[in-house]
Amino acid sequence: MHILYNTLTPCPSNIYNMAKIVIAGRSDCPYFARVELLGDRLAKNLKKFKLHKLMIQPDKWDEWLHTTCAERGWEFHSSPIIWRELVDRGGKGVLIGGANEFQEYVKAYYDVESEMTSYEMRMVAAENKKTKDELDEEEKYFKSLSNPVNVCITNAASPVCYHLLHSISTGKVLGPKVELVIHLLVNSEEDVEQVTGTAMETEDLALSLLRDVKVFTEAEEAFEDCQIIIFLDEIHREEDMTMRKWYIQYMTLFTFYGEIIDKKALRNCKVLVCGNGPINFNATILARSAQKIARQNVVAVASVVENQAKSVIGEKLNVNPAGVVNLLVWGNINAKRHLDVSKCQVHGYDGAITGPSWYSVNAIEMLHDNKWLSSEFPALVSARHLKVSRIMGRSTSLSTANSISTLLKLWFRGSPHGQIFSLAVYSEGWYGVPEGMFFSFPVTMDPKGYWHVVQDVFLTPETKLNIKSSIEDLQYELGIIREDNQPSKGKISIY
């Protein structure tokens, strides 16, 4: 790109002896592009011309301009704004004005004009915006290397959040040297007092790695520079609410969240969608909206159901549920899913043969009851949440919080060698699941913060049939929000 200027005409030596020109504007402003390049030309050719440029992101410009003008007693409302500071005399500076006033100012003293065309101005403005975005992202990244990890928890009035706070703050989850700041996002002003009390109690734990706990009412502020966001949102479905209306409400909420994540969260942010609602559906909507976040960084938590299934197996075999490993949850976590025990092993079983802690026995062989596995077992797991809630008189929360913190620990620090877990992730076509569908798969995790789908699990005819049913269920959920109310159809091949 070639930009033509008139020959510089020197001005009296005392005009800019101790003066600095400040040019500030929106990063996407074509007029800022014109005057900043004009200023660069002057600074390059005149030793005593001091130039300082401030490029502000569009979403922050209005607030910045209002604050700057209020501090200096100016009245100005557009981009760019230019002023002259007398650095040897102090003071608030002298307002020059906007792009036109600055060009007149330069013309008067130096007989210089910009000959940039409108097209060139727009091109430079686009380059400025791209550069500013890259610089801001780079700055966020380097800050994240030294600053505490920012963790946001939505629906912070939830009992799940209350139980989650201690476990993620002790260092056992993210690591023994990882400091963190917790952002608690409330759903309404009515929850502020309660959640503020929760924040105060959390600070009273006096944990060395907990730098701060903050309460927010706006997602735009709560998601700022976050590396982890945990969604606990649930929408109660009234008796007269149609299924479609319920899903549309979830779609609206998670579309909004996704857009805010794109604007405010760090690009390496890890997002966990939890709860008793349609979390596969919610993760899908969120990933579609938060397009700047890697799709591998959005997951739906399957470990709540996985742990409930382990408890049922543990009761049946009279073993500690912690000793039940490699129990897999396929599909739509809180709806049509398949509980797969084909790889399930049991540690600590009191049988004819015992061994050290690493020794395990095959769960199917120990259960020795295919009828129970195919019928009663799934029903018992499905009823587990309601059974425990009914006994306690409230919804379960402690086990859910533990499942979330366990998943975070695995995601950040890796899973034990030889163990497989369940996680709903963005499908790339594994096992015939359509690409782009959030589906619960068997996964392992490495300490670098990545999960890997285990791709060599043998599928029985029953498992294939149930996976197909789960796919159709998720297709129905995604189709119910369409205006024609028809789920997308397609051939499903499970392998």
UniProtKB/TrEMBL annotation:
Gene Ontology BP terms: malate metabolic process
GO terms assigned for molecular function: malate dehydrogenase activity; oxidoreductase activity, acting on the CH-OH group of donors, NAD or NADP as acceptor
Sequence ranges assigned to domain Lactate/malate dehydrogenase C-terminal in this UniProt record: 307-477
Keyword terms of this UniProt record: Oxidoreductase
Gene3D superfamilies cross-referenced by the UniProt entry: Lactate dehydrogenase/glycoside hydrolase, family 4, C-terminal (3.90.110.10), NAD(P)-binding Rossmann-like Domain (3.40.50.720)
Residues of the Lactate/malate dehydrogenase N-terminal domain: 150-297
Family matches, as InterPro entries: Lactate/malate_DH_C, Lactate/malate_DH_N, Lactate_DH/Glyco_Ohase_4_C, Malate_DH_type2, NAD(P)-bd_dom_sf
A Pfam family reported for this protein in Swiss-Prot or TrEMBL: Ldh_1_C
The keyword Oxidoreductase belongs to this UniProt entry's keyword annotation: yes
Family (UniProt): Belongs to the LDH/MDH superfamily. MDH type 2 family.
Protein name: Malate dehydrogenase, cytoplasmic
Taxonomic lineage of the native organism: Eukaryota, Metazoa, Spiralia, Lophotrochozoa, Mollusca
